[in-house]
């Protein structure tokens, strides 16, 4: 889901915290 990551670039503040869980997918 490339478009998905691009959208969340603006909310990377909280993304970094959940990145561990999302990275598995």
Q: What would your notes on this structure say?
A:
- The protein has 25 residues and is mostly helical.
- Helix content is 80%, strand content 0%.
- The protein is flat.
- The chain starts with a helix and ends with a helix.
Which characteristics define this entry?
25 residues; mainly alpha; 2 helices; flat
Q: Whole-Å distance between the termini?
A: 10 Å
**N-to-C series of helices and strands:** HH
What fraction, in percent, of the residue positions are helical? over 70%
Q: What amount of the residues lies in strands?
A: under 5%
> Quaternary state, please?
single chain
How many separate helices? 2
Cα radius of gyration in angstroms: 8 Å
- Helix and strand composition category: mainly alpha
Largest sheet: none
Uncertain regions: pLDDT < 50 for 5+ in a row? none
Short structural summary:
The chain is built from 2 helices and no strands. By secondary structure, the protein is mainly alpha-helical.
Sequence-ordered SSE layout with sheet pairings:
Layout: H1 2-8, H2 12-24
């Amino acid at each position: 889901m490339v478009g998905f990551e691009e959208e969340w670039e603006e909310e990377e503040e909280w993304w970094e915290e959940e990145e561990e869980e999302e990275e598995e997918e």
